[in-house]
């Protein structure tokens, strides 16, 4: 890490503390000795992939609908904002509360409500292959710039194909960062749609899937039967807010 990068990280961490204390964006910029609010904006977008204003709101004005649904690959927890899917995770145990707590930590001021009906159509379009949406699926996720670049690269992997961690690293212009790519893939907040199951080891093995190698085998097997890598309906398209 360069000294400049280290200073940026310290600046953003201090800015988070000040914003948490309800300081205005102008006051925060002045306290940090930044020349303008745009410098604070640049730091946040570069390191956090969100604006200072979005961080300060911490979910205010956002409604999150969530539910648990049954799929061919086990139960999934899904959470959706007005902009799109913000969380989709396969359940290995009864860990629903852990995912709800995770959402509260990220968006403490958001309205959280269990809503089976509003999320059912999305799940059916993803896994059932029968119900068609009148618009592409949307994603509403955030992460570091590096994580976002990896997730975007995963969205570009064509159905019916697989790639390796090294190939993804090269795709994002970081050919020596295969290990870091693996960590970013492990942090994928939206299973199945951000297709981390299409990334395999360099030697061709499937190991390393966050939601279990058995489930990964099942996804690929069902996808092969349908002529697609993830078994998703061909009507499903993705529009990303990341």
Give the termini separation.
Answer: 25 Å
CATH-level-4 superfamily name of the largest domain? Winged helix-like DNA-binding domain superfamily/Winged helix DNA-binding domain
The CATH class label of the largest domain is Mainly Alpha
Query: Which architecture of the largest domain does the CATH hierarchy give at level 2?
Result: Orthogonal Bundle
What proportion of the residues form beta strands (DSSP E)? 5-15%
Work out the number of β strands: 8
Please state the structural category. Answer: alpha/beta
Number of domains: 3
The largest sheet has its strands arranged as 3-2-1-4
Uncertain segments: 227-242
Biggest β-sheet description = 4 strands, mixed
Protein architecture, described:
The chain is an alpha/beta fold. It has three domains: 55 residues, Arc Repressor Mutant, subunit A (Orthogonal Bundle); 77 residues, Methylated DNA-protein cysteine methyltransferase domain (Double Stranded RNA Binding Domain, 2-Layer Sandwich), CATH 3.30.160.70; 88 residues, Winged helix-like DNA-binding domain superfamily/Winged helix DNA-binding domain (Arc Repressor Mutant, subunit A), CATH 1.10.10.10. Helices cover 45% and strands 15% of the residues. It is built from ten helices and eight strands. The protein has a four-stranded mixed β-sheet with strand order 3-2-1-4, sandwiched between helices. Strands 5-8 form a two-stranded parallel ribbon. A hairpin with a 2-residue loop joins β1 and β2. α1 packs across α3 and α8 crosses α9. The C terminus is likely disordered.
